[in-house]
Every structure is written in C-alpha cells, then in structure tokens.
Amino acid sequence: MLKSIHRVACSPALVACQQLMQRFALWLCDPAITDAHINQQGLQPPVLASSIEANWLWGFLQRIEAGQTLLSRAQTVAAMPSTQKTALSTWIQTVAALATQFQPVSMPWPNNRPFASESDWIAFKTLFESFYKKGFESGLPYLPNGTPTVAGGVNYADYVRAFRNTHRLNPDPDAREVCVLCGGPLGDTPQVDHWVLESKFPLLSVCADNLCLICSTCNEAPNKGKKPVHSNGSFADWFHPYLRPGNGAVHLEYVLADLSVQCSSTTPADQSKSVKLDELLNLSIRWTREFKAEYAKHQDALRRREQRRLQTAQARHSVADIQSYVQQWQEDLVHSEPHHEVHRTLALALQQPSRLAAWHRELGLVTEAQANL
C-alpha cells in the first residue's frame, strides 16, 4: 500500500447496497419468514425501506446462476431450520461490522461457515456473491450519492472509472497509471479486488470498504490471489486499504549486501503488518526485480556513454561523473510514474561511496574488455 487509497464518488451507492444486502439477509433469517414470504409484494416497505429497492431486488432474484434462479437460493435460506438461521444471523451482524475489526479492541471473526450444512451455505453464498457478479455488473438501484433510482444506477464500469479518476496521479488521461498497492503500473487490465475474500465472506461482495482497483499482478497468484488478509479471523497484524492503511507505514529499505530492497515498516509497531503485506503481495521480490532491472538499464546507458568517450579519445568517467549522472537522474524522477519509490531508492543507493566506486570499477572492466576486442 504505497499510495493513498480513498473512497470514490460512487462509494455511497455501494454503502447503500451493502445495507440492502444486510437487511435482506437478516430478514431471510427471521424465524417467522418462510420461502412463501419471498414475493414481490412481500419485499415492499417496510422490509427494504423503499419500493425502488424492493422492485429491483425482485427483478434481481429472477436471474439465473448455475441453472437456478437466485430466488430459489433465497427460498433455501428462508427454509433453513431456526438454529441455522440464528447462527447465520449472528454471523451476518459480525461480518457486517467490518470497521470494528480495526479498532484497538476487537473480537476475532468467524473463520468458518456459520453452520454445518454445506448445501445451505452454498445457497447463501451464491445469492450474496451475485449482488456483485450480476447486480453490480448491470447496475445497482442507486445513484452515486446512494439515493435509490429506477434506472441508471451505479455499475461496475462506473466504479472502475471513478476509482481510476480519483487515484490518477497525473491528470493527463494519457499518462501512466499507478497501482495503489505495489506502486507499479496499473496496466491495461486492472482488476477490482475484494480485499477480504468474497468466497469466504459473501456479504462483503459489494462493500465500499472491501473493494479497490489494483493491477492484475497484485491480484493474481502467486501474489494476493485467494490468500486471506487475516490470521485465523484476527486482523490485528494486517493493514486494510481504508480502515488501517499502509500508506506512510511501509517503505523500501535498501540492502547493500545483495543489491536488493525489502518491504519494511516506518515504526516497530507496524513491523508485523509490513511482513504480512510483503508475504501477501511478494513486494520485496517484485521490487527487487524492478530495482535490478532499472540498475541494469542505467548501467547499460553509462557503458554506452563510456564507449562514446573511448571512440572520441575522451577520458573515461570519473566517480564524480557517475555521481552527477545519478543525481541528475534522481532529479528527473516523476512521482506520478510507476515504480517511483523503487527508482528513488535505487538512486539514493547508487550515491553511496562504496556503490559509486564499485560501479566505476565495473564500467572500467567492461569498457576495457570491449576495447580489447
């Protein structure tokens, strides 16, 4: 989390949808509700607060997932035994209170499904994941400010566009964009990530505090992929994009011995969180790869300069010349470009006297060998 991460203009619509999901889930868990109660009339106010939301939800339930309607999944949940409903209701209220997990005192989350029946859990999971996979894709019943609307509600594409615009470091639409997690290029195929896995916690599938747009490299294995962002239900040693941000708490640390960088914390209190973030995203490995590639690029640039000097009978680069080159390169770095932090770390590392001397020797050996060819 090298960059600041913010909620976006349409986040209130996601908050409203999250509240709708929670109300609907708890209503299904009411012991008095059976599958027969789930109809368009039964969803009307005061069950879901507005007729717009109720009518949207009824249309949503008619959609098909894996050969069955979402309505059939809702009916399965409503028909569960009262003991399962009680357990699920408690689970829903715990999971919905995501922000409490990042307060000074918090209780561990349930790390397993709330009841034994796998088929009932799959019905619940499929139903609430579909708010993202089907509802969000085509459009939620809310304007960006969270006001219910019959048509033209916020959808996936709106969120992606809003996130990109909010986090664009260079306002030029043609400028390179930066991933908020790793600081590398956002790329042509950024992905909306569920920070807490929706497959384990489907109630958070459309949650403003659980979504962020990141690069495909961060979001796919062997990096984040399907890894959890908690330790057996505890978030104590974890950052969170919005509720406990890592921006300003992590930095790159240069390791002279092996010409690499590590993900480190700015304070001892955040060290365990930095370690977890590094393990989640393999930041040290990825940053070191970029560090070494950028080093090789500038090494090659200096070699070519050295060759031109030899061809024109000029004196070879001195240590001071190399330092001047690095300092100019550092001054030209642009904070809105991908890998800015890695390149800045490299520029500072190369100005250490021992590194300048070593680079000077390396250039001398290379150019001497080429001159003898």
Overview of this protein structure:
The protein is elongated. The protein has helices spanning 11-28, 51-61, 70-78, 82-96, 118-138, 156-167, 216-219, 271-281, 283-311, 319-332, 340-350, 353-371, and strands at residues 64-65, 68-69, 191-194, 211-214, 250-255, 260-265. Strand 1 and strand 2 (68-69) form a beta hairpin. It has twelve helices and six strands. The longest helix is centred in the last third of the chain and has 29 residues, at 283-311. The chain is 47% helix and 6% strand. The model has no long low-confidence stretch (mean pLDDT 93). The protein has 373 residues and is mainly alpha-helical. The two termini are 48 Å apart. It has a two-stranded antiparallel sheet. A two-stranded antiparallel sheet has the order 3-4. Strands 5-6 form a two-stranded antiparallel sheet. Helix 1 packs antiparallel against helix 4 (82-96) and helix 3 (70-78) crosses helix 5.
For the secondary structure, the number of strands is 6
Radius of gyration: 27 Å
Main sheet properties: 2 strands, antiparallel
Helix content: 40-55%
Euclidean distance between termini CA atoms: 48 Å
pLDDT averaged over residues: 93
β-strand amount: 5-15%
Shape: elongated
Tally of DSSP helical segments:
12
Low-confidence stretches: none
Strand order of the largest sheet: 1-2
What structural class results from the helix and strand content?
mainly alpha
Q: Tell me the series of helices and strands, N- to C-terminal.
A: HHEEHHHHEEHEEHHHHH
